[in-house]
Amino acid sequence: MKKVFLTGFIALLLMSFTFNDDLPIIDSNTIVLKIDIDESKTGWGNWNRTDCLRGLDFRVRNDGYNKYAKKYRWSIQFRNRYRDDIHFSYKAVAPNEKYDIRSSGRTTDRVHVDSGDTRGSYYLVRSGNSIYVYINKIRLGEKDYGYGYYDCDR
Fold this sequence. Notes:
The protein is an alpha+beta fold and 154 residues long. It has a domain at 48-140: Sandwich (Immunoglobulin-like), CATH 2.60.40. The protein has two helices and seven strands. It has helices spanning 2-16, 98-104, and strands at 48-49, 56-66, 71-80, 86-93, 109-113, 118-125, 132-140. The strands form two sheets. Strands 1-2-3-6 form a four-stranded antiparallel β-sheet, with no helix packed on it. Strands 5-4-7 form a three-stranded antiparallel β-sheet. Keywords: Signal. Residues 1-21 form the signal peptide.
């Protein structure tokens, strides 16, 4: 009687479950999610010219709020359209800090962008809607030393 009951119970269990060969076998601590990502939507804004240089463009992307810094992370890309390499210092701030940064001239990062190339970085900024990118201490040429800074050409 016990054998009949046990055999019937096992048969009932096997009929209760269906197996799908398409699903990967995973351990109990793993969750598998399928997320479709549209590669064409990068979130980058349009290329903009800087206030100072005709041959240097930049664009920005808001990467979201950083709860630890209590600021928004903004990615920045610079594009060099000059025939020469360009070297400059820059800082990104909230638009309401635009006049403070322009009067102080204090920048925090230095970047080198080869002719025809693009280079990027990111900043943490208090504004989630827009940012102001300030550039100074510009040098055009192969080296970033040995001669003075370049004046604006705009």
